[in-house]
Known about the structure:
Blueprint: E1 2-9, E2 16-23, E3 33-39, H1 50-59, E4 63-67, H2 85-100, E5 105-115, H3 117-128, E6 132-138, H4 151-165, E7 172-176, E8 183-185, H5 190-197, E9 208-209, H6 210-218, E10 234-239, H7 247-253, E11 260-264, H8 276-290, H9 295-305
Parallel strand pairs: 3-4, 3-5, 5-6, 6-10, 7-8, 10-11
Antiparallel strand pairs: 1-2, 2-4, 7-9
Helix pairs in contact: 1-8, 2-3, 4-6
Amino acid sequence: MSQTQSVIVRGAGPDLAADLYLPRRGRDLKEPVPAVVTASGFGGVKEMLLPVFGRALAQAGIATLAVDYAGFGASGGTPRQDLDPVAQIKDMRRGIDHLCQDPRIDARRIGVFGPSMCGAHTLVIAGSDPRVRAAVSLVPFVRAPRTPPNPRMGLALVADALRSLVGLPSERVRAAGLPGERAVMTSDGALAWIEDISKDAPSFRNEITVRSLARLARYRPMRMLGPAGIRVPLRTILSRSDGITPAAEARAELRHVQHDCVEFPGTHFELFGEHLDEVLRLTVEWFVEHLAVKREDADAQTLSDA
């Protein structure tokens, strides 16, 4: 079990809504606890998938701050549903700022993790923020496909560029849809998974600005790092038949990075279905080891939850 608090992350930019998952005994611990920051995947919000990770990490004595990006979910910011990778990375850094200012958190033991699009941001932050000590990147987006998997999105980009020239706001399209529909993700059972996982996320909107796609086409997380690359302990978890963030692309982009790579059979969203328990175990295990969680604290927390 864990105690969950709704918090506001302030700083340069709109106020960000976040959920802080603390070990149940967090307020009673004699020493500050380690913590990780995370956010959702493509177009998602903090109530989707992340709570199960927050609770699992809290049971092991690790706090988790799950942030809604600006313009999404309960966070402020306009335009809404407009995805900017650089801005989202800054939002996650603000989450780290917030953790480091919380006296219950040990600022010397900070980690970062995330799925899909946030998996990409995780790579950037792990390789560029000196406060981060360990990272887990789940099925990360590492580069846009060389040709749009959905030709209708290519046409939408052209039309949106023309709208921009005459000063019109960017059009919105569905983030997930059925194969053949005018949507960004139409493979790997995206729509069914999104509809299921968002049942407890009333602020979620299954839409994204077309302008977001133009930014994603230029986003190469590993190219945002210097020659040192990523030096903190990094675990990547991939799906072999992933049609959205292909495992082969991730392996290629990370070929010069020392990391612990675990691969599962199945597609992008199947990783968080039948394999979820094992993915949780691998994530918690990594942070317990590399954020130096005291074994007696983790054991005591487990006993208190029994």
